[in-house]
Amino acid sequence: MIVLEEYRDEGISAYNGTKRPDFEAMIRHAKEDKEIKHILVHDSSRFSRHKYRSSSIKGELQQHGVTVILVNSPYDPTTIEGVWRDSIDEAMA
Hints:
Layout: H1 21-32, E1 38-41, H2 44-47, H3 51-63, E2 67-70, H4 80-92
Parallel strand pairs: 1-2
């Protein structure tokens, strides 16, 4: 994989619903650029701390051919096991 860009919202919580400009830019970029196939994130809590919001965003990304890969918990989110593990990670976040 080639890392195209890093996005950071320093000091902004993924929990309290505050706007996350870099996160939102990352999602837009991933949806618009057909060459992007994956988003790498440290762990589920860094993506979002809201299970349903996280699932919704990941679903939108999948419709654009983009999968979210958790570096600390790598699994294939397109398999039954991956969906199960992703749900657990989201709930724990």
